[in-house]
């Protein structure tokens, strides 16, 4: 119990006129975090409690701040990819590809259709992996461990697909400027098809366990709600905003990477409470499966990367035999290629909202300024408002359903 | 409904605020950008917010920036506004001297500006006048400098093979 320290704060909010014993209206300060199993990440909440009820909350963030924006001002563009996947490590491929698309916009590289479809498949798999974590852990926080164990094996399986494509599981560094670093292998295609076939069954099972479960519903309905108006004012994006009833989805509003080719629906909630957020994520997984299915079916033939020798690493065998390939290989690896002057904003629909990249290039090899719009940094500040007046156990569930990723929160 | 063009927005803003108040007009990959003085920020953003057609009611991001060579306008803030109804984005930029980097807060209009402004303060030392809780957010409270300013370069402390001169940089 070392993380939770109970400190009586006798000076705050005592109503001297109240009757009913010495402890009435005495407020308690409760430290939730920085390291606490229920916060799923390193951030602190200093709660002011009146008995069981939360009166006020103050957040402290930045415990794992790693100065990515500063580091990015020194790194060549391609090395920044590894920074992006350390932000939202639950859906790293989306971050990687968002960054790649930002740079491609700056460089004016046209990505072949096959690479775009491959990106869509990987991004949607990442979205499923992200939502599996959020929703199953939300169920765990309400006391249902079984569903989590059923569905988590599929997240593991999705990580195997990442492994097949880029060799890494968590910090993927997937793709390159101009496309993907390698085509889908037969094993990768087989595994993706296995997800399309196998996941629905498990997803249904999970929904059967949790979705209409009386205990789960009682714990999550009307808990941590936010109105559409407040959510917009707080800059909510992604499933959290859609749960409040606003159908803003970057994939639909500003389609990138051929999202306009696919048919899918944007689920919205009505109340913006924890239950709605759960339902929206659940439905998004079904929609993601739909997109993957369509993309696999219509996966175009052709090259899986653009012809951009200044930025796309040549084949290793060419490096040994071909002079130009050797030169480009050296120049790319050493970061000797200057980016054009320009100013770009590009955003993608990340696992938990609009993930934006503002890139200002002064013509050097690294950005002059790079600003990451991290969705959970922006919406996590609404947390005190959402939990005021509720109990501590409700606050835990609310935080869990907001899908706050500490790595992204702190860059 | 017809899509609002950047020209319409510019024409409207210039008729409202005068041609001298809105300058640095440009477009980058379809996103309109304007530069204004620090005293025009709040009236301009408020005007865009409550405008019956534009409705820039979503603050996407707020980024601080440092140009050490621009004398008198070293520190800047870039407001990324988004009109969700029209799906139009606009960047509003403003600059202030580094000796007195004071910007008005827009937390009254957008609750989300709270942490964004704290972040800009944390990394660039930009003061947002009227902010309810302007203190460091990601760095530790004891820090006595603003790390994203350009006078603090990132260095590879242990490496001597990447001397810029040797590479003609």
Automatic annotation (TrEMBL), chain A:
<dbReference type="InterPro" id="IPR022885">
    <property type="entry name" value="NDH1_su_D/H"/>
</dbReference>
<dbReference type="GO" id="GO:0050136">
    <property type="term" value="F:NADH dehydrogenase (quinone) (non-electrogenic) activity"/>
</dbReference>
<dbReference type="InterPro" id="IPR014029">
    <property type="entry name" value="NADH_UbQ_OxRdtase_49kDa_CS"/>
</dbReference>
<dbReference type="GO" id="GO:0005886">
    <property type="term" value="C:plasma membrane"/>
</dbReference>
<comment type="function">
    <text>NDH-1 shuttles electrons from NADH, via FMN and iron-sulfur (Fe-S) centers, to quinones in the respiratory chain. The immediate electron acceptor for the enzyme in this species is believed to be a menaquinone. Couples the redox reaction to proton translocation (for every two electrons transferred, four hydrogen ions are translocated across the cytoplasmic membrane), and thus conserves the redox energy in a proton gradient.</text>
</comment>
<dbReference type="GO" id="GO:0051287">
    <property type="term" value="F:NAD binding"/>
</dbReference>
<dbReference type="InterPro" id="IPR029014">
    <property type="entry name" value="NiFe-Hase_large"/>
</dbReference>
<protein>
    <recommendedName>
        <fullName>NADH-quinone oxidoreductase subunit D</fullName>
        <ecNumber>7.1.1.-</ecNumber>
    </recommendedName>
</protein>
<dbReference type="Pfam" id="PF00346">
    <property type="entry name" value="Complex1_49kDa"/>
</dbReference>
<keyword id="KW-1003">Cell membrane</keyword>
<keyword id="KW-0813">Transport</keyword>
<dbReference type="InterPro" id="IPR001135">
    <property type="entry name" value="NADH_Q_OxRdtase_suD"/>
</dbReference>
<comment type="function">
    <text>NDH-1 shuttles electrons from NADH, via FMN and iron-sulfur (Fe-S) centers, to quinones in the respiratory chain. The immediate electron acceptor for the enzyme in this species is believed to be ubiquinone. Couples the redox reaction to proton translocation (for every two electrons transferred, four hydrogen ions are translocated across the cytoplasmic membrane), and thus conserves the redox energy in a proton gradient.</text>
</comment>
<keyword id="KW-0472">Membrane</keyword>
<keyword id="KW-0560">Oxidoreductase</keyword>
<feature type="domain" description="NADH-quinone oxidoreductase subunit D">
    <location>
        <begin position="141"/>
        <end position="410"/>
    </location>
</feature>
<comment type="subunit">
    <text>NDH-1 is composed of 14 different subunits. Subunits NuoB, C, D, E, F, and G constitute the peripheral sector of the complex.</text>
</comment>
<keyword id="KW-0520">NAD</keyword>
<keyword id="KW-1278">Translocase</keyword>
<comment type="similarity">
    <text>Belongs to the complex I 49 kDa subunit family.</text>
</comment>
<keyword id="KW-0874">Quinone</keyword>
<dbReference type="GO" id="GO:0048038">
    <property type="term" value="F:quinone binding"/>
</dbReference>
Automatic annotation (TrEMBL), chain B:
<keyword id="KW-0520">NAD</keyword>
<comment type="similarity">
    <text>Belongs to the complex I 30 kDa subunit family.</text>
</comment>
<keyword id="KW-1278">Translocase</keyword>
<comment type="function">
    <text>NDH-1 shuttles electrons from NADH, via FMN and iron-sulfur (Fe-S) centers, to quinones in the respiratory chain. The immediate electron acceptor for the enzyme in this species is believed to be a menaquinone. Couples the redox reaction to proton translocation (for every two electrons transferred, four hydrogen ions are translocated across the cytoplasmic membrane), and thus conserves the redox energy in a proton gradient.</text>
</comment>
<dbReference type="InterPro" id="IPR020396">
    <property type="entry name" value="NADH_UbQ_OxRdtase_CS"/>
</dbReference>
<keyword id="KW-0813">Transport</keyword>
<dbReference type="GO" id="GO:0008137">
    <property type="term" value="F:NADH dehydrogenase (ubiquinone) activity"/>
</dbReference>
<dbReference type="InterPro" id="IPR037232">
    <property type="entry name" value="NADH_quin_OxRdtase_su_C/D-like"/>
</dbReference>
<keyword id="KW-0472">Membrane</keyword>
<dbReference type="Pfam" id="PF00329">
    <property type="entry name" value="Complex1_30kDa"/>
</dbReference>
<keyword id="KW-1003">Cell membrane</keyword>
<dbReference type="GO" id="GO:0048038">
    <property type="term" value="F:quinone binding"/>
</dbReference>
<dbReference type="GO" id="GO:0050136">
    <property type="term" value="F:NADH dehydrogenase (quinone) (non-electrogenic) activity"/>
</dbReference>
<dbReference type="InterPro" id="IPR010218">
    <property type="entry name" value="NADH_DH_suC"/>
</dbReference>
<comment type="subunit">
    <text>NDH-1 is composed of 14 different subunits. Subunits NuoB, C, D, E, F, and G constitute the peripheral sector of the complex.</text>
</comment>
<dbReference type="InterPro" id="IPR001268">
    <property type="entry name" value="NADH_UbQ_OxRdtase_30kDa_su"/>
</dbReference>
<dbReference type="GO" id="GO:0005886">
    <property type="term" value="C:plasma membrane"/>
</dbReference>
<feature type="domain" description="NADH:ubiquinone oxidoreductase 30kDa subunit">
    <location>
        <begin position="34"/>
        <end position="156"/>
    </location>
</feature>
<protein>
    <recommendedName>
        <fullName>NADH-quinone oxidoreductase subunit C</fullName>
        <ecNumber>7.1.1.-</ecNumber>
    </recommendedName>
</protein>
<keyword id="KW-0874">Quinone</keyword>
